[in-house]
Write a structure and sequence with these properties.
Layout (H helix, E strand, L loop, with lengths): L7 E3 L2 H10 L3 H10 L2 E5 L4 E8 L2 E10 L2 E9 L2 H10 L2 E3 L2 H6 L12
Parallel strand pairs: 1-5
Antiparallel strand pairs: 2-3, 2-6, 3-4, 4-5
């Protein structure tokens, strides 16, 4: 399950800069955004979050959805402790049927990487 191929993933200049700075490969980041099942809604930023493994690092990608496009906002390394804390405090919530229906995706309610 993932983001349908008809949806285009667009990279902001900031994400390209962060990727280069941290030695992240855009192809691996795109794979995470498109196929990772660990997805949340960030109640503080009001953005969607996807988490996945980039080589040996856990990364968090924040993105927005506009029509048939996913626009990446930022990417950074994360820890399981950070993700679990944000879940416990309510900052991150599991995607609901509402947020997932925007992308026509199923709902996953389990941690994959943490």
């Amino acid at each position: 399950m993932g983001i349908p191929e008809k949806i285009t993933i667009k990279w902001t200049e900031y994400v390209k800069y962060r990727a280069k700075l941290r030695s992240y490969k855009i192809a691996l980041i795109e794979h995470i955004v498109r196929y990772s099942e660990e997805r949340y809604f960030d109640t503080v930023t009001q953005r969607m979050i996807v988490i996945g493994k980039h080589e040996n690092r856990l990364v968090l990608v924040s993105y927005e959805k506009e029509e048939n496009d996913i626009i990446s906002v930022t990417i950074h390394a994360a820890s399981c402790q950070q993700v679990n804390f944000r879940l416990k405090t309510g900052r991150f919530i599991y995607e609901t049927y509402y947020t997932r229906s925007v992308l026509n995706l199923g709902v996953s309610k389990h941690l994959i990487f943490c």
